[in-house]
Amino acid sequence: xxxxxxxxxxxxxxxxxxxxxxxxxxxxxxxxxxxxxxxxxxxxxxxxxxxxxxxxxxxxxxxxxxxxxxxxxxxxxxxxxxxxxxxxxxxxxxxxxxxxxxxxxxxxxxxxxxxxxxxxxxxxxxxxxxxxxxxxxxxxxxxxxxxxxxxxxxxxxxxxxxxxxxxxxxxxxxxxxxxxxxxxxxxxxxxxxxxxxxxxxxxxxxxxxxxxxxxxxxxxxxxxxxxxxxxxxxx
Length: 235
Ligand SMILES: NC(=O)c1ccc[n+]([C@@H]2O[C@H](COP(=O)([O-])OP(=O)(O)OC[C@H]3O[C@@H](n4cnc5c(N)ncnc54)[C@H](OP(=O)(O)O)[C@@H]3O)[C@@H](O)[C@H]2O)c1
Hints:
By secondary structure, the protein is an alpha/beta fold. The chain has seven helices and seven strands, in the order βαβαβαβαβαβααβ. Strands 3-2-1-4-5-6-7 form a seven-stranded parallel beta sheet, sandwiched between helices. Helix 1 links the parallel strand 1 and strand 2 (31-36). The chain binds NADP nicotinamide-adenine-dinucleotide phosphate. NADP nicotinamide-adenine-dinucleotide phosphate is lined by residues 11-12, 14-18, 35-38, 41, 57-59, 84-87, 107, 111, 134, 136, 179, 181-182, 184-186, 189.
């Protein structure tokens, strides 16, 4: 589909993969709405880049409903939802904190479902639309310390299949993208030490490119799942 003049919502678009994707979609002529919980960070990202910012926490149902009401009021419709908001929490099983585990699930799983639920109502009514879920290679393979995050991304991958089965008859494409390590604030935001920039590893623009490519394919077809690795990462 042509991205020109499309109305696109990127949850968690105030930094990292979400912001890079929002910028690339805007360059393609789309109107891009970004969300996040931190008002100052969101407003800065929106103002500096010509994006529309709405403070909205995907883990809170009332805020998600309010967000979609505002989008419909201001733009009249929505064409694409990019379920990108998410964060990690990494701890060995014996040390897993249940409250933090729940927080991860509430954003990465329930939050994605809440946004998709509202988007699906709009898309079913107009018989078309796209949902892109940003999962991870952690949605395909577990690792030590990954209990909470891996559980959340496997769940997102599973929900993707359910939504696809429900929504395909309405011409709605539900696409999963699995980035491997991408150099964003993700590591620091999950409580781990900052890593030095490594030019051989992925950056947000690489995932933005995957998103744009998947969306630009003619609507008669769609890519179900796309996994993105760095070609030859050096440590
Ligand atoms: N970086 C990687 O290596 C990597 C690899 C695979 C997949 N991913 C996935 O890619 C997505 C984006 O991560 P990133 O690497 O770009 O990290 P990031 O730079 O930390 O960005 C995360 C974004 O999500 C927002 N966010 C977090 N919780 C939210 C909530 N409850 N409601 C609304 N917004 C929320 C953050 O803003 P606020 O904090 O202000 O809310 C921020 O805009 C995540 O789903 C992550 O799991 C990342």
